[in-house]
Design goal:
PLP-binding_barrel, Ala_racemase_N, alpha/beta, pyridoxal phosphate, 8-stranded parallel beta sheet, binds pyridoxal-5'-phosphate, PyrdxlP_homeostasis
Length: 229
C-alpha cells in the first residue's frame, strides 16, 4: 500500500468514527509528507523542533503542524509563529513561555496537557494531581495567549491489551472530570489525543477523538532524521 492509499483508508475509518487523524511524519522526508498531503491529509505531527521548522519551510503553508514531542522552553520561539497545536505541554513554566511568545506574535496557541499514564520511567507528562494543580493556579489564570484544548497521553509500550485499555480508560475518565470541573462552559475543550499505530483501535474504543499515526501511514522508521539519511 502506498502512503496515499494508507491515508485514504485510515481517513475513511477515522472520519466514520468522528476521530481526527494526525499523521506523524517525524524522521520522514518532505516527499513522503507531500504524498500524504496530495491524498488530502492536512494535519501532521512532529516531535523535534528543528525538523518541524525545516519541514514547515519546505511544505505547503496550509498544513496544520502539531508538536507531539517534549518541548524545551528555549525552543518555543522557533515554532510560536506558525504552530497549530502543542500537544506536549508538561509544565506551567513551559505554558508561560508559550504564552509569552504567542503574545509577541499576537496569536493564541492551542495546547494539550500531556498526561502521564504509562508504566514507564522515560515518558514525559503531568501526573493527574499536577495537572489539577496547574489548572487551579492563579498563574495559569493569567495566561491569555494559550488555550487548553484538551489532553494527550501515551500508553505503555506493551503487548498487554488489557494494560493499554486500562490506561486509556483512566485518561478518558480523567478528561471527563477535568472538562466538568474546569471547562464546563468552554466548548473548545474537546480534544482527547490518544492512540498510536499499535493501539489506536483500543484508544478509540476508550473514547479518543484524535489518533496520532506514524508507521501505519509512512512505514517503519529507520533513520532518526531524513537529512541524515
Ligand atoms: C512517534 C509518535 C507517534 C506515532 O507512532 P507510531 O507508532 O509510528 O504510530 C505518536 N505519538 C507520539 C507522541 C509519538 O512520538
Amino acid at each position: 500500500m502506498s502512503i496515499a492509499d494508507n491515508i485514504i483508508s485510515l481517513k475513511k475509518e477515522t472520519d466514520s468514527l468522528h476521530v481526527i487523524l494526525l499523521a506523524v511524519s517525524k524522521t520522514k522526508p518532505p516527499e513522503d509528507i507531500q504524498q500524504a498531503y496530495d491524498a488530502g491529509q492536512r494535519i501532521f505531527g512532529e516531535n523535534q523542533v528543528q525538523e518541524l521548522v525545516d519541514k514547515y519551510e519546505k511544505l505547503p503553508q496550509d498544513i496544520q503542524w502539531h508538536l507531539i514531542g517534549h518541548l524545551q522552553s528555549n525552543k518555543v520561539k522557533y515554532i510560536a509563529p506558525f504552530i497549530s497545536m502543542i500537544q506536549s505541554v508538561d509544565s506551567l513554566k513551559l505554558l508561560q513561555e508559550i504564552n509569552k511568545h504567542a503574545l509577541k506574535h499576537d496569536r493564541i496557541i492551542d495546547c494539550l496537557l500531556q498526561i502521564y499514564i504509562a508504566d514507564e520511567e522515560t515518558k514525559f507528562g503531568l501526573g493527574f494531581d499536577e495537572a489539577i494543580e496547574l489548572l487551579r493556579s492563579d498563574d495559569f489564570a493569567e495566561l491569555k495567549n494559550i488555550k487548553i484544548r484538551g489532553l494527550m497521553g501515551i500508553a505503555t509500550n506493551t503487548d498487554s491489551e488489557k494494560q493499554v485499555k486500562d490506561e486509556y480508560y483512566e485518561l478518558k475518565t480523567f478528561y471527563d472530570g477535568i472538562k466538568a470541573s474546569f471547562f464546563r462552559k468552554d466548548k473548545t475543550f474537546n480534544v482527547l489525543s490518544m492512540g498510536m499505530s499499535s493501539d489506536y483501535k483500543i484508544a478509540i474504543e476508550q473514547g479518543s477523538n484524535m489518533v496520532r499515526l506514524g508507521s501505519t501511514i509512512f512505514g517503519n522508521r529507520v533513520v532518526k532524521h531524513w537529512k541524515n539519511n
